[in-house]
Amino acid sequence: MIDKLLSNLSEDLPVSRRDMLRLSALLSGTAAMPMLAQAANPNDPVRIGYLPITDASPLLVAHARQLFEQQGLQVEAPRMFRSWAQIVEAFMAGQVNVVHLLSPMTVWARYGSQFPAKVVAWNHMSGSALTVAPSIRTVKDLGGKKVGVPFWYSIHNVVLQHLLRENGLKVVTKPGGELKANEVALSIMAPADMGPALANGAIAGFIVAEPFNAAAETNGIGRVLRFTGDVWRDHACCVVTMHERDLQGRPEWSQKVVNAIVNAQHWLRDHRPEGAQLLSKDGAGKYTPFPTPVLERVLVANAARDKQYAAEGAIRHPEWKDARIDYQPYPFPSYTEQLVKLLKVTQVEGDNRFLSKLDPAFVARDLVDDRFVKKSIAALGGLKAFGLPESFTRSETIVA
Q1: Domains observed in the chain
Q2: Taking the complete model, does pTM exceed 0.85, yes or no?
């Protein structure tokens, strides 16, 4: 069943080097200019754009449970897109106004292209993994092999390259021949293509958002070598992104949008089985093409499985007691600062010279607008409602 699912998804979610070039063109100053002059339309409803991955969970749950309507908002049915290029294009054109984007992608959009987008909240924490062929037992075993990544500007690429550096391996983004024993070739791939590529030996592993890792496990294609949340503790992956024009032009509307998404995250923390069913192809909204058991493997805690992961080394820090995917909305500045620092040493294709000019502390202040999410959190009783200390500061923990 999972084989058929992955095959169908490969057709639905194509991505390629051409897709990357398309997005690079979109995120140019010329492409962004038409949006700079447009004012917020006070009558625009909530229009959600998403990819069918667990990263989109809060947006979809907020829609399914009518949390936007409870805030007095009008909302359209969420629009599913096939690639990051498509969702960014629709966002820039104003076809959607609330999206989840890869956190490094927001840095590229705002500073590489001067596009007026702002991060208003985190969408989730962790929720990704490095999945490998059965023959791969350690990160060092990836030397001389190819690994699939979903996008250059992704937390997956950032974490993977950190792991490779720490294990003495060199990243190759444009393989031109036989790889050396200490080289790892990275290839941009659609998440849906990763499982089949791993099964036929085209790649030795992939790093991607859930539930593609869970699907690969369920189908016996590969096994999780490391969870990204066990490398960078409680890292953000996708973030809630909105137009700066909406935040400035209709702040009350923006506050209500964020309220609904934060309320959805709060609900998800205590209703994981229901959330898995709601998000699945078996749910009324059919938001994703995944069956409920695959999503339950991601969302619902399983102590016996976690013990096995710890024994195999996929979890090296069981004392952290972190969930495979978790939800808390506050965008900690320390994360954004650390992300910018790591992006500066992460290899990507294309012109990334803008990164060298970025001050991490400035980006943490300028990229993120936390006015709304702080009020939403306060309305639920503070950060303790999300299992966190009552502090809007933290220290980042990144290991190998």
Answers
A1: 2-125+236-291+325-386 (3.40.190.10), 128-234 (3.40.190.10)
A2: yes
